[in-house]
Design brief:
Blueprint: H1 19-24, H2 33-42, H3 44-49, H4 54-60, H5 63-70, H6 73-90, H7 96-101, E1 109-112, H8 128-143, E2 147-152, E3 160-163, E4 169-172, E5 184-185, E6 195-200, E7 203-214, E8 217-223, H9 231-234, H10 245-265, E9 272-276, H11 282-295, H12 299-307, E10 310-313, E11 324-325, H13 327-334, H14 337-340, H15 345-350, E12 363-364, H16 365-371, E13 375-378, H17 381-390, E14 406-407, H18 414-418, H19 422-430, H20 434-437, H21 442-445, H22 453-481, H23 486-493, E15 501-506, H24 522-529, E16 536-541, H25 549-562, E17 571-574, H26 579-588, E18 591-594, H27 606-612, E19 616-620, H28 625-628, E20 634-637, H29 646-670, H30 679-692, H31 698-741, E21 746-753, E22 763-771, E23 780-788, E24 799-802, E25 804-808, E26 814-821, E27 828-836, E28 851-852
Parallel strand pairs: 1-2, 1-9, 2-8, 9-10, 10-13, 13-14, 15-16, 15-18, 16-17, 18-19, 19-20
Antiparallel strand pairs: 3-4, 5-7, 6-7, 7-8, 11-12, 21-22, 22-26, 23-24, 23-27, 25-26, 27-28
């Protein structure tokens, strides 16, 4: 039965408690323990029952409970303290951004992501990508960055996981109740919901806009589940990561194109657009379309103006993790759109193809983002290198090291993962408030050495005890749901040992993460875990994608092994992994195990959260650990080898895990002094905190994005659009002229001052005659590219030295010269190359044009 009218019912709060509503509607409570404790204080059991959602909590309380709180002087004093802290945070005039970048004109960043993990009560995230996006917004708020988030609001929560008796994963989808979540529906002045439209074949898709306040940062979420839409279109925001490519393309049209239109409807005109993965890449097309219509620009001119403000972060080290759409689907959904851009179908499809002229190649969202962004990065140093190899074909003839994809290593939001923990209390006591205000300050973290070993160990043990208690409770709940016997429930109550060395493993169950690697030799593992003098235990959590049967099979294998008599009290799988489970795990484990098949882990962030809480890491040298590892902070599985035979690799690395546990990890943990403290282990804990905490956090990450990408992009964007986008027009015209004349550019003659044997310390002088056709010397940069020769007779890790323009000779060629000092012995080589040069290009490689010297010159 359809209602003829709807209304929103909100809880009635006594006047003294009215500000609870404001506090509940700002996710700052997700990383402020005092605010969370305020809500928990109203009804601790109910706080757990409503999934830590303060809006639902207020709606579910009895009126008598609210009246009692309003009459409780202690509660009111707590409320006043929280409100004072909240107001001081929200109104702060001195933030990092204002101190460091106050001179940047009209800086505003739009951060687009398909998922955001802010808190467990807003379940629109599936895993690491979403948690990173949430932490990104939180640190942007802390730093005072003028940033807004844009995403989709899914009607169904990302699935709840439950396992049958055999350990096979099933999924339960529960509808999100937006009106009982920390969300506000954006409305027009007349009170009606603010909506945006995108075009679909023969119809419009309409979405309304919800706002989640994340501290100082607004996150705008589009919701298409509206009666005005066709039933199949209402499903566009039904569920995260739908497998149907037809639904997926509509999701990404809404996210990218609809997201830009939502910002305009809200009166926002960001100068910088950050695409977190390729799902939102259509935003670059919408920005170009707007620029064409508003400034009467050509596609090329608008492209130059928009691309300079686009940033693309890729998280995917394998092609299988990227969205592709068929040419037929792109033509169906963009048939009128590409004509508005002034493009033919082939030109339009070429924007998303590695080979723009291959009519059979599908349209790739990552390629579109790479082509239409001027700043591109992976999420760790190793992933940056992997990405450069992966996308090298977009920049043919360019050495892989110079592919214009750099890296910004991920981080985690410290307060989200520490706040309220026992170790966090010690940080407050011994590090002072500066660890909260500036977690990137290395000198602050040096103070961890002042924490007495006994206090640090006792705090960590209390966290482990809480983890064990939480795990036992969850295990009993899981078994009850499966109809377990009383005997099985009794076993669950005795599972794990609060004082035993505890290893944690939790993440998305993709096969490359190798969740079962530690179980490869279950008998050897059982001996390690079952040592009565030095017991070890393993807690595992994680979900497989609903359509990933291989990932589900890994979970089933673990459950079956966990039923073995010699493992059942030492191995526990926690169902339904979410942010709440993650907090208990990263705070309570002693050792965090990570076993990806190198180099397939782009970054990984769970181990960073563990380090913040005093745990140690043991991992394959992949992702962030490849740059973070040093012997005093944890353990490395292998030395960064990459094996062509994956079966052999698994065998080698499983044995490495067992060897490390038997010979190093377990003995160190149980090596106790007279005071019963594991001083060697504690020394590693402190070293881990000192070296890892100030680096692998999102405050450092956001500062890096700001200084390397956001601020330069905003500055360049303003330069290009000033005076009717005159510089964008000029740049597009210049590029067109360069493309037309590039075939005439060549090396005419080359002269070297020296011979094929030279001594260390001498100078190599090179002079080149260059034919430029109708181009001028200022249109190019000529570089001497030199370096050692490898076994393939190639220049390895070459260095490019710009050559100086000398003048024009009588036959019309242009002379360039350079001098380099020879510092190293061995076989060296050099060559010359010519690249286009323009002051408004972010990178000399943006055009993809490059002319190398011919060996016949």
């Amino acid at each position: 039965m359809h209602p003829i009218r709807t209304l929103t019912v909100v809880p009635f709060l006594p006047e003294k408690l009215e500000r609870l509503r404001e506090l509940a509607l700002n996710f700052r409570w997700a990383w402020d323990n005092d605010t969370r404790e305020l809500f928990r204080r109203l009804d601790r059991d109910l706080w757990e029952a409503v999934g830590h959602d303060p809006v639902r909590l207020l709606a579910s309380l009895q009126q008598t409970q609210l009246e009692e709180a309003a009459a409780d002087d202690a509660f009111l004093a707590h409320l006043d303290r929280v409100c004072e802290s909240y107001d001081e945070y929200m109104e702060a005039s001195s933030t990092w951004c204002r101190r460091e970048h106050s001179a940047v004109h009209n800086l505003q960043i739009a951060y687009f992501s398909a998922e955001f993990g802010i808190a467990e009560c807003l379940p629109i995230y599936s895993g690491g990508l979403g948690i990173l996006a949430g932490d990104h917004l939180k640190s942007a708020s802390d730093l005072g960055l003028p940033l807004v988030g844009v995403g989709l609001l899914y009607q169904e929560a990302y699935f709840h996981q439950y396992l049958n008796q055999d350990g096979w994963q099933s999924e339960l989808y529960v509808d999100n109740d937006f009106y009982n979540m920390p969300l506000v529906l954006e409305r027009r002045p007349d009170g009606q919901p603010l909506t945006v439209e995108v075009d679909l074949p023969g119809r419009k898709l309409v979405a309304q806009i919800w706002r989640a306040s994340v501290g100082r940062v607004p996150l705008y979420l589009l919701d298409a589940n509206l009666p005005v839409n066709n039933p199949e279109d209402r499903d566009v925001t039904e569920r995260l990561y739908r497998g149907d490519p037809d639904v997926r393309i509509r999701q990404e049209i809404l996210l990218g194109i609809g997201g830009v239109r939502a910002l305009r409807a809200l009166g926002l005109h960001p100068t910088v657009y950050h695409m977190n993965e390729g799902h939102s890449a259509f935003l670059s097309l919408e920005r170009i379309r707007e620029m064409i219509h508003e400034n009467a620009l050509s596609f090329g001119e608008a492209r130059e103006a928009c691309a300079v403000g686009n940033i693309f972060t890729t998280h995917t080290p394998v092609p299988a993790g990227i969205d592709y759409f068929s040419p037929e689907a792109m033509d169906r959904y963009f048939g009128s759109y590409y004509r508005e851009l002034g493009l033919s179908l082939d030109e339009f499809l070429g924007l998303g193809r590695k080979n723009a002229r291959d009519v059979n190649e599908p349209f790739c969202m990552a390629v579109l983002a790479l082509r239409l962004a001027s700043f591109r990065n992976g999420v760790s140093e190793l992933h940056g290198a992997v990405s450069r190899r992966m996308w090298q074909s977009l920049w043919p003839n360019l050495p892989v090291d110079e592919i214009p994809i750099t890296s910004v290593t991920n981080g985690v939001h410290p307060l989200t993962w520490i706040s309220g923990s026992e170790v966090g209390v010690l940080y407050n006591r011994y590090l002072g408030p500066r660890w909260l205000e500036d977690p990137t300050n290395r000198s602050v973290w040096e103070a961890v050495d002042r924490i007495p070993n006994e206090e640090l160990w006792n705090a960590h043990e209390r966290q482990r005890e809480r983890l064990v208690s939480f795990t036992r409770q969850r295990l009993r709940t899981q078994l009850t749901g499966r109809g377990a016997s009383r005997a099985e429930l009794d076993v669950a109550s005795e599972a794990l040992d609060p004082s035993a060395l505890t290893i944690g493993f939790s993440r998305r169950f993709a096969t490359y993460k190798r969740a079962t690697l530690i179980f490869r030799d279950p008998d050897r593992l059982a001996k390690i875990l079952g040592n009565r003098e030095k017991p070890v235990q393993l807690i595992i959590a994680g979900k497989a994608h609903p359509e990933d049967n291989a990932g589900k099979e890994l979970i089933r294998q673990i459950i079956r092994l966990a039923h073995r008599e010699d493992l059942r009290r030492r191995v526990v799988f926690i169902e339904d992994y979410d942010m709440d489970v993650a907090r208990f795990l990263v705070r309570g484990v002693d050792l965090w195990l990570t076993t990806p098949r190198r180099p397939l882990e782009a970054s990984g962030t769970s181990g960073m959260k563990v380090a913040l809480n005093g745990g140690l890491n043991m991992s394959v040298l992949d992702g962030w650990w490849a740059e973070a590892y040093r012997s005093e902070v944890g353990w490395a599985i292998g030395r960064g080898e990459e094996y062509p035979d994956t079966e052999y690799q698994d065998e080698v690395e499983a044995n490495a895990i067992y060897d490390l546990l038997e010979k190093e990890v377990v003995p160190l943990f149980y090596d106790r002094g007279r005071d019963s403290l594991p001083d060697g282990w504690i020394a590693r804990m402190k070293a881990s905190m000192r070296h890892l905490c100030p680096v692998f956090n999102t405050n450092r990450m956001l500062c890096e994005y700001s200084e390397r990408f956001y601020v330069p992009a905003a500055s360049r964007y303003h330069d290009l659009i000033a005076d009717g986008a005159s510089r964008a027009r000029e740049l597009a015209s210049w590029k067109s002229r360069v493309f037309q004349n590039w075939a005439k550019v060549r090396m005419a003659a080359l002269q070297m001052d020296g011979d094929d044997r030279m001594t260390v310390g001498s100078d190599l002088k090179v002079q080149a005659e260059i034919t430029l056709g109708d181009l001028a010397p200022e249109d190019v940069v000529v570089e001497l590219y030199h370096g050692p020769i490898d076994s393939s007779h190639q220049i390895a890790h070459g260095t490019a030295v710009p050559m100086t323009y000398v003048g024009r000779n009588g036959d019309g060629n242009h002379t360039f010269a350079a001098r380099i000092a020879l510092h190293d012995t061995g076989l060296h080589g050099y060559t010359l190359r010519i690249l286009p040069k323009h002051e408004d290009m972010v990178s000399a490689f943006d055009t993809g044009l490059i002319r190398w010297a011919d060996s016949s010159v």
